[in-house]
Amino acid sequence: MKILITGGAGFIGSNFIFYMRKAHPDYELMCVDKLTYAGNLETLEPVMDDEKFTFIKADIADRKAIYETFEKEQPDVVVNFAAESHVDRSIENPAVFLETNVMGTQVLLDASRKYGVKRYHQVSTDEVYGDLPLDRPDLFFTEQTPIHTSSPYSASKASADLLCQAYYRTYGIPITISRCSNNYGPYHFPEKLIPLMIANALADKPLPVYGEGINVRDWLYVEDHCRAIDLILEKGKIGNVYNIGGHNEMRNIDIVKKILEILGKPESLITYVTDRKGHDMRYAIDPTFIYNELGWLSETKFEDGIKKTVQWYLENRSWWENIISGEYQDYYEKMYGNR
Ligand code: NAD
Ligand code: TYD
Question: Does any ligand 1 atom lie closer than 6 A to the CB of residue 244?
């Protein structure tokens, strides 16, 4: 089995490579990554010399490079993680989100059609369903919830999902799609809530909480997500969408307080800043379908996952300190300087 993993130098893709290496040591894994600001080859160091692993630096929207890769490598399965993934950046500059998330997906689907694959799996997000109101805790996203996007990021991911479904219906490309909730764990880029708060708390810098901090996200430990994708590849039904999440709903402010508690830092570091434009209120996944079909359940409780995550950031300081010492400084100043 030869699996082409795009975006494998990023957060979830790298965790997926490590997971698959262990779960299926006989599989050949290939990573295609453009190495944008979010991609880090250092992360993949543990597998770089592995003879069953190949790294190819390429843009998924570069048709020539992608066709050449498919022609040469003939993958059986494609798992597309590659994306511009940060909502705040999409609000500042939507164009690159359309280029990578929509056009890049189209190129991968065209290549899958031209060269033939057993499966094309699209890693999507619960953000395609928009948000739920805070006063209706009885409501959850199911696979039947209508697509209703809020940000340029979620609009681009929804467009990619629709393209996958169109290629399935029109050309019979054997697709599956998974829509997961917010992931957390090792190698999470420090522009996202949890690693940003850990890094700032460790530096005794203000923790910028948007609005009142009452927005709710449904947190999924990244390894649980990787296990779900592996199951979908093995047993998922072609054409299906699977929601992946695990009833780990938390308000942002409670997460920030939890991180401060674990690190023994004062709550006086919390600073409320101007809210995100169009900020989604609540995400919450109903995982009944993936449980009934594939027997998947999220195993990591938030309480345990967040402790493991903080521990990882404490033990791997050089990984994230390298990142935040570079161009990240300009990003931080631009996003938070006058907020
Ligand atoms: P990330 O930003 O950490 O990593 C993205 C990776 O894709 C990076 O290695 C980057 O270099 C690469 N990439 C970007 N543009 C590329 C291009 N044009 N060609 C090739 N490679 C390119 O993202 P992540 O958090 O690991 O997310 C992975 C996938 O999961 C994305 O599709 C995202 O939409 C989805 N997702 C993420 C979350 C989450 O909580 N992080 C939740 C739901 C869905
Ligand atoms: P984020 O990690 O960007 O993920 P997403 O927007 O995909 O859910 O943000 C998670 C939540 O945390 C979201 O409600 C926005 C909020 N947030 C802050 O309050 N402060 C921050 O500095 C960041 C990055 C996010």
Answer: no
What type of residue is 31?
C
Q: Is 195 in the pocket of ligand 2 (CB under 6 A)?
A: no
Q: How many CA atoms lie within 13 A of 264 on its CB side?
A: 2
Q: What is the CATH number of the domain that holds 98?
A: 3.40.50.720
DSSP helix/strand/coil, 196: helix
pLDDT tens figures, 24-76: 999 999 999 999 999 999 999 999 999 999 999 999 999 999 999 999 999 99
Model confidence pLDDT, tens digit, residues 173-227: 999 999 999 999 999 999 999 999 999 999 999 999 999 999 999 999 999 999 9
Residue 223 · residue 229 · CB < 8 Å: no
* DSSP alpha helix (H) spans, the chain: 11-23, 45-48, 63-73, 87-92, 95-97, 105-115, 152-171, 193-202, 222-235, 252-263, 288-294, 302-315, 317-324, 328-336
pTM of the complete model? 0.98
In the structure, what pLDDT confidence band is assigned to residue 327 with cuts at 50, 70 and 90? Answer: confident
Pocket test for ligand 2, best of 127, 192, 216, 324 (most atoms within 8 A of CB): 192
Q: Which domain holds residue 25?
A: 2-336
**Residue-wise pLDDT tens digits, 120-177:** 999 999 999 999 999 999 999 999 999 999 999 999 999 999 999 999 999 999 999 9
Q: How far is the CA of 192 from the centre of ligand 2 (A)?
A: 6
Total domains present in the chain? 1
Question: Beta-carbon neighbour count of residue 58 at 10 Å?
Answer: 18
If we measure between CA atoms, which residue out of 239, 330, 232 comes closest to residue 16?
232
pLDDT over 70, % of the chain: 100
